[in-house]
Amino acid sequence: MVHALLASMLFTPPTTTTAPGIIRCAVTGDARFSPSDVHMGAVLIDASWDGDTLTLFDAPSSGEGKVRLGQTQIFKDVRWENGQCETIALPEAIIYGTVSSRGDQATALVACGEIRWIPANATTYVFELPRTDCTIAALRKDGLLDVYASQPVAFDRTGLVNRFDVDLPETFQGGMGISFQTSWQGVVVMRVLPGSPADVAGLTPGMLITALDGVSVVGWSTADFQRKAVGEIGAPIRLDMVTPEGTSNVTLRRAVID
Predict the structure, then answer these.
(1) How many beta carbons lie within 10 A of that of residue 148, not counting itself?
(2) Which of 26, 116, 219, 241 has its Cα between 20 and 30 A from that of 201?
């Protein structure tokens, strides 16, 4: 019995342990975004990736940092606690770029069907999205007006990393002062804001706008019309319309709508 007890004490089976300072993080997703450098603030942690696992060396038992995706300048969060690392999910594709605006208010960026509010004075935005065809557009509010970027940016998303640059007007924009609805015949005036340029020009609900500055609006989307109807304060805009009395046209000047 004594010999058995001594034997059990002397020959306890070894247990498998992780070497101090080594953290292993499982990685899923597109392997072409091979994770590389890991940064904890200003500290660069030595790391290696074998295609399935990202191994951190000389790391504290708990911490968080940023892991760089491949050779890009795009980073993803990585966290671990008591030696256990959260799984790192690599994206299917990335879009990144800038939105130029007045910079004094938040901007909505419509990216592949998702609307994201961007803080004022920010310049570069990075999004992880499924690799599908999509359109990037930006807008902001000037008073009651939705101010759109000049043109949306379309992607076929065949690449891993896609860049966009969209520009919003640098100055506060003006409009006509109507709410409207598009139809197969053109754009129908639904409401006229009292005291607005449209009100002064005699527009009333039910009128049908068929052309804007000589260009037919038949088949336009709401964003198409808004993009063209909004512009510099004081700039003229000509409308061709169908009214109960027949066809007519009117020129008005854009003003602040609030």
Answers:
(1) 22
(2) 219
